Amino acid sequence: MIQFKRLDHILVSIPPGTTQQARTFYTQVLGLTEIPGGHPHGAIWFEIADIQLHLREEEGGNFSSRHPAFEVTDLTAARHELEQKGVEIAYSSEIDGRQRFFIRDPFGNRIEFLEYQ
Question: Into how many domains does the chain fold?
Answer without folding.
Answer: 1
